[in-house]
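Reading is simple: each integer encodes one residue's backbone shape. The lines below illustrate:
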Amino acid sequence: MEKDNISIKTNTKGEYISSIIIKNNNLLLKNLFDMNIFQLVYTLNTEMFSDFNLNIKDESNANVYFLAKHFFEDFGVPQFYFSYNVNKKISNNTIFFECESVKLQQAVKYVEYMNLERLSIKCDIIESHTAVIDIVLKLDLQTIEIPTFVEKAIIQLIYKMILKVKEFIENYHYKVLHND
């Protein structure tokens, strides 16, 4: 799928590779990509998530929890959650977020843990106001089975989630108030 400067591909079943171009002449994008970007994803996509928690330990480490809405209940697919430790690294004009999946000890009853074999986010700041973001998301299909029709829906959900964040960032304008 390629639309709105967003590309989403699947290499293998359960692996999604996205590439996004973001531009906003009003923002220095390198300042935007910190741990709070996960809060922005949740805030802009509350129709996709029932719950969220972000525990920022420091500027390079955080714990993130997303509880997805129960989209496919009628088809017997369980509701699921993602939980991971995030590590942020910066190298020149590139910001990396590496996410390690973590199963919660006190999980929500009747909710499945969706183990991510891999979640990595790479933000290349091309210019001060332009970034290319590459996301690799690979589900651990050893722990949960994803029917083909659900996988197609997942691609649509990923696209909608990314599009909302992209449009918010690209359309963000701020006003500086002066006391004259």
Notes: The first helix runs from residue 37 to 44. The mean pLDDT is 88. Residues 2-171 form a domain with the Alpha-D-Glucose-1,6-Bisphosphate; Chain A, domain 4 fold (CATH 3.30.530.20). Strands lie at 2-3, 6-10, 15-23, 49-58, 61-68, 79-91, 94-101, 111-113, 116-127, 130-139.
